[in-house]
Write the structure tokens for this entry.
Amino acid sequence: MEETRQDNARQAALDYHEFPKPGKLEIRATKPLANGRDLSRAYSPGVAEACLEIKADPATASRYTSRGNLVAVVSNGTAVLGLGNIGALASKPVMEGKAVLFKKFANIDCFDIEVNESDPYKLADIVCALEPTFGAINLEDIKSPDCFIVEQICRERMKIPVFHDDQHGTAIVVGAAATNALHVAGKKFADIKVVSTGGGAAGIACLNMLLKLGVKRENVWLCDLAGLVYAGRTDQMTEQKAAFAQGSTPKTLAEVIVGADLFLGLSGPGVLTPEMVQSMTRQPIVFALANPTPEILPDAVRAVVPDAIMATGRSDFPNQVNNVLCFPFIFRGALDVGATTINAEMELACIEGIAALARATTSAEAAAAYSGEKLSFGADYLIPKPFDPRLIGVVASAVAKAAMETGVATRPIADIEAYREKLDGSVFKSALIMRPVFEAAAQVTRRIIFAEGEDERVLRAANAMLEETTDKPILIGRPEVIANRCERAGLPIRPDKDFEIINPESDHRYRDYWGSYHELMARQGVTPDIARAVMRTNSTAIAAVGVHRGDADSMICGTFGQYLWHLGYVRQILAREGRSPQGALSLMILEDGPLFIADTQINPVPSPEQIAQSAIGAARHARRFGVVPKVALCSHSNFGNLDSDSGRRVRAAMEILDAREVDFEYEGEMSADAALDPELRTRIFPNARLHGPANILVFGYTDAASTARNMLKFKAGGLEVGPILMGMGNLAHIVTPSITARGLLNIAALAGTPVGHYG
């Protein structure tokens, strides 16, 4: 059975690399090349202009070429993963994989370069000769001690960052994990005894990093296959090992590990025994990082010392020491400031950023990527997960700041906070466009009721509200359930301590709430008994009554169930004093910018008046995001060429807008392609009053609007903000079941802004 499973896994891995096309990388053009004009700019004669600019000022290469965002992953294949010296060609899948990680996690372009050269001095010459092509060099899988030689020569001769990830990447992640492990154990670097196995590149680099963090050299004991590294030893010695010599007599690992606080293993399986772990100090820290089989398995450690703090190099155990936590982001920060090197201060900044992020509340995105795992800071969660999207903003900005402070940045960044926000915007697509909304919401404090308060997405959104906004969440749900789910999700917030609870099963306001509901609905067949039952069971109705009574300023519902069902209760209770649902507006964040779509939910076949109201409301809301509204009223018909139902209603809506003399650009009726393509629109209707592409599409049917929204989400990678319920004075918003925790936070920010702020 196990053999079959391994065969299947092997074949799956091979298929992954072969199909749909061989390898894991391809090259794509970033500029159009569709006609002779494009060709003349991309190549001859236009390319000469860029060449001359770079000749005059080499620094402009980062403006006119990809060099400023291009990294080389260079290897000779002499020390590949756990495979050893397999040669340059066989190492290529690993190097391609490294390039993919650069792109995925930090949007850095990368070429993998495999070199048939075993002489470290010749290899260094080759790497140095690549400097005109690349903005930075990542050395990978070069055997020790050759890697030290290659890196030293390259760093001395090259004016771009050179980083040997096997050394420094491992050291940085180990440093972050050790920082937090000592935090958990209540110890300090200056006081601990460290015992390490493995004197290779990674092991030596980790020990040097621990010294930078405060470990005293006299408290470091290094062992390898020949035992303790001591003064005068000649067997299997290197200059790098000799720097950590202890004493002058041979000793075994079992002898030196007695009383150790931290074991650092970068050697091989079975090196550490349970008996050795027992001989260590209280709550020992065991970093068994050999791959694929660690020096000792976590279960064996916990069997003898239950409170031991463990880390491995494997993803199937807690605390995986994975270099992907580091290298994409340290290069991102270094490239963005034009750093000439990666120095110790930048590495320490990287450590501080990674460690601090683990101690913060886990992001909803990371929790979703690692569903089922408890991601709260402690012995089993010392470092963040690789798919935590906050890494790029935290780590890269810290590295960039350190580069500037130490004088190695050639292109300093004026506003480091704005830079961090830009980085966050590259992974949190909504971050940049939502900024003016969050800024507006911060001007006041509003109380927001979440109808489905037991949902984990809601709990994460509430936690984020408390951390990032001035608004106050109110959750409808059972306190014990909410508390348990907060605990399970690793969230620090608790009911009635950090936020208010409305408990449908037992709340002192129950009599007031059902009384209010009955008063509102008595002439619509709602008896006192029905009112009491609704206020015990229907969280949407409870939330709406809470807003009606002034216990909250706005409500959010819809994480489960059908939109129109929720809308029914919002209408019953809150559609008063001139308020009525006019339409649902979805903001779709696309690669080329924002696009608003209405009405996606409310009016299946909207009247001309309803279409006009949706256009007015959409324009008003677009301005909240800093977008100048350009409204297209969409139909199958183009400017009267079809006598269709939607065409007639849209034309009538145009007349209504004309009569009201609204203050935004609009045009219709037109098809969606005419709305988005100004050239096509001009050919069809040269005198159109809309300039440029539309950024608001108002459709004549909800079917069309909803279909457009969903197609953009699933085929174009669009991120939705919304739906935004227009016409209700910001008292209520109804989301859809696919919404994420961040989506809820975005809606909460919209709900957290008084209507008076945006008209």
Residues 438-574 form a domain with the Rossmann fold fold (CATH 3.40.50.10950). The chain has five domains: 37-160, 168-316, 324-428, 438-574, 583-725. The first helix runs from residue 2 to 18. The radius of gyration is 31 Å.
